[in-house]
Amino acid sequence: MSAIVEVISPANAVELLSVVWMEVTMASLAALVWLTVTGKWVAPKSQKKMEHVENKPAEQGKNSPRPTPPPFGGRAEQARVGYKALRQGKLPEAIAALQQWPETVAGNVPASVAPRLLMAVAKAPNFDEAMAELKVLAGKIESRSFEAAVLEAIKNKDMTACRKLQSLAAPMLISKSAPTLEALARAHATDLTMLRVLVDEAEAPLAKCFAGAVLEACAALRDVDLAMEVFEKVDEADATALRIIAEKASTVAGSSTNKPSKPIPRLDNSGKGHTKDSSTLAREICTCARNGNLDGALKIFERLGSQAASTLVYNAILQACTDCGDLEKSLHYFSLAESNGCVDVVSYNTMMKAYLAQGDEASAKHLLTKISEKGLTATHGSYHGLLNARANAQDRVGAWKLIEDMRAAGIPPNMGTCSILLKSKSSSAAEVSRALALIDNMEEPMNEVFFASVVEACVRTKSLDLLSELAAKFAQQSSTAALTASTYGAMIKAYGQAWDVKRVWGLWHEMTSNNVQCTAITLGCMVEALVLNYCVADAWQLVQKMWSEESTRLLVNTVIYSTILKGFANAKDIQKVMAVYEEMRAHGVQPNAITYNTVLNAFAQGGAMNRVPALLEDMKAASPPVEPDIVTYSTIVKGFCTSGCLDRALEILQEVNSSDKFAPDEVMYNSILDGCTREQRPDDALKILGDMRKSGVLPSNYTLSMLVKLMGRCRRLNQAFSLIEEISQEYGLKVNIQVYTCLIQACFNNRQANKAVTLHDQIIKQGLLPDDMTYRVLVKGCLDAGLVDTAVYLVKFAYGIGRPKGKDMPPGVDDQCLAELMSALGGPGSKDAKGLQAELGQCKTAAPRRGGPQFKGKGKGKGK
Question: CB of 706 within 8 A of CB of 674?
Fold first, then answer.
């Protein structure tokens, strides 16, 4: 500045003034000529009016960076519209105007307005909708504009806006500058989850200022794992300086809490940071271990010589030995690390992991106690291994004891802790609620990975009310306020299994309104849920809509079409089955064996076996051809047996027997036996039973039930009894109540009512519990035989009167059966009927079996 002052001498000043006066004179002359020629005078905007426009208070985001209005030219009106809409919070109008600006069209939203726009989106009442509108400008907002918006949010201590700004960076293709990353790291210094997200998103090598901020936060939070990740991603030239920063931060953190701070990775014994070679070789050790090459890892370690005397390298070789399951070598190198003073909490955690892999929890617990004795501080990882072992052992008491130990050590449970508790397959709804109560005290919000485990646990324990509550909480905490497609799919599937179609549709509409990109798996879950709830027509309509849109057409695949085919097949709607099948082929979606078998099953259930030959030809003509499998032949056999064409089914069985590719299985044999029962051909059935024995196919209770039904209908009751005794002894088969129910019915069919009642008493002595169907057969049979007193006795027994007490509730009988008995006693108003009714009214029976809603044809789902 002094040099400039010296240059402006009095003589120079005179020269400058003369030039200025000359310019003023020329401008005045030009104005005079313009006025004379045109007769018009363009007055400039009054300063007062311009100041009014400049100082007009913003209605949206008044603390946001104020953009400078662009110079008025060809786009003056468009500029005014854009700024006015932005001030009034009308984001769609503002964004539409910005799209037309020459700067935006050329490549970037002007830096004068972009920060204000970002803040307006972050502060918008409905962030999802605002974000959807903003996406048209993806890739057109510079990192400096994003940096200005973030710094403004941090300055105003608006952490909600800060989180939303961070969440929109990725979808808007905005790269974060080093100052931005540092500012975000310091803003989220107490939020380990957000820090980890920042480190994961940042490209290596990390900027020194950003890495330093994260390391200071790690020291305060006493988290070694994230600090290690930071050191792996920094430039080697910055490593030494960053270690000094980390150690100072550790010292400060330890003194402020009066607790030993969690050590940041140690320096080498030389007092310097790890050399490039040692760090590289440590990574090579880990790479060898991941490839299962422990010998290679050991050779690298031995070559290091004196360079091996560092915590990083010792931890690498410890991890390698643990990953490869060599406990002996893990113990050897852990001992060496201790003797060289190169152990930290990571070393202890790795050694605990090695013990736990061998099932030695006692040694792992002993190491946990030594951590504090060595002046170190345990981490979440120190406890999580032991907690996982207790969860796998289904020891809920031991698991919760570890939770208390963690709290006593000053380590609050985090999402990882809760996830371990949730994964236990033995967890009840109460246990899941207790585990999820831990998240109420967590400062960190739920992330997507954790919420997925929450969904799985709630689905497994059928805690769907709790799931709804937590989904709403997650949506409020999440910076994007939306779940991923996979999580939506899991929830849709769960509510589908709970017969809640309204909630299924609600989740689907929520997913689409949040602009979550659907996947084929999510669509498959939606279709499956609708088909399960007999909304097959709705499922087909949804698939047709997805196919009609170019962006979602690729999601419609063979599995989804097969699910719809299965729904219409179960409804025995052959016309719809064929319509879906033809549409599938017309769209070029290649059917597979499951698809063809589903269509064949529809033919079998709907009595359309005449269509089978044409479908088999389609299988041959497919590209590539689809070979029939054992399920194909079993389905065809079942169809012929159901439609009364047993001889044709026997021919198929003979073809399969003569083929080298397949051998008949139990399903095929049982279908043939069912056909023999329908046509009352006992000799053929006994021949089939002989073929089963020769083929080594073990008969099941279902096989026995078919044989007993057949023998009973053909008046071969003694043979039915002998078959049960013979097969159960030969194959060690424990006869179930369904087989005995068939045998009781066979006794009544052969006018052996007393034998049927005696069989009931025999079943009770064997410790089997007859179900409501068994008692229905018994009571109806006795009434048909005129044994009313015996029927009364059996009904009382079904209600628990005179029945030995056990842990199972008595089954009772259905209303129709009870009404028939009351009629036999003289009607509901008779003395005997009233007495029996009063006696039964004092009894408690098992709750009636529940199922899904009955199929109602083409009805829409309630939530559609």
Answer: yes
Distance, CA of 336 to chain centre = 44
227-241, 328-342, 478-492: range with highest mean pLDDT = 328-342
Pairwise CA distance, residues 675 & 695, whole Å = 20
CATH of domain 738-864: 1.25.40.10
Listed as own residue / partner, the contacts of 55-62 with beta carbons closer than 8 Å and 24 or more positions apart are 56/87, 58/86, 58/87, 59/87, 59/88, 59/89, 60/86, 60/87, 60/88, 60/89, 60/120, 60/123, 61/89, 61/116, 61/119, 61/120, 61/123
More confident site: 1 or 843: 843
Measured distance CA(141)–CA(139) in Å, rounded: 6
Residue linked to tokens 């892999």: 357
Please give the model's pTM, rounded to 2 decimal places.
0.52
How far apart CA 451 and CA 474 sit, in angstroms, is: 8
- Tokens matching residue 462: 């059928």
**Sequence-distant (≥ 6) Cβ neighbours of residue 333 within 8 angstroms:** 301, 314, 317, 318, 321
Query: Look-up: residue for tokens 């989220």?
Result: 188
Q: How many Å apart are CA 499 and CA 373, to the nearest integer?
A: 56
Cβ(410)–Cβ(372) below 8 Å: no
CA distances, 280 to each of 211, 260, 272 (Å)? 20, 30, 16
Q: What is the Cα–Cα distance from 815 to 837, expressed in whole angstroms?
A: 12
**Contact indicator for 287, 281 with CB cutoff of 8 Å:** no
Cα–Cα distance measured from residue 557 to residue 592, given in angstroms and rounded to the nearest whole number: 11
Chain center to CA of 675:
44
> What does the pLDDT average to over 267-284?
50
* 8 A C-beta contact, residue 150 and residue 131: no
What is the tens place of the pLDDT at every residue in 762-779? 988 888 888 989 999 999
Cα distance between residue 765 and residue 760, in whole Å: 9
- 236 or 27, which is more confident: 236
Residue 234 main-chain phi, psi, to 5 deg: -90, 160
The C-alpha angle 191, 193, 195, rounded to 5 degrees, equals 70
- What does the pLDDT read at residue 95? 82
Residue of 358, 382, 356 whose CA lies nearest to 369:
382
Given a contact cutoff of 8 angstroms between Cβ atoms, the answer to whether 323 and 298 are in contact is no
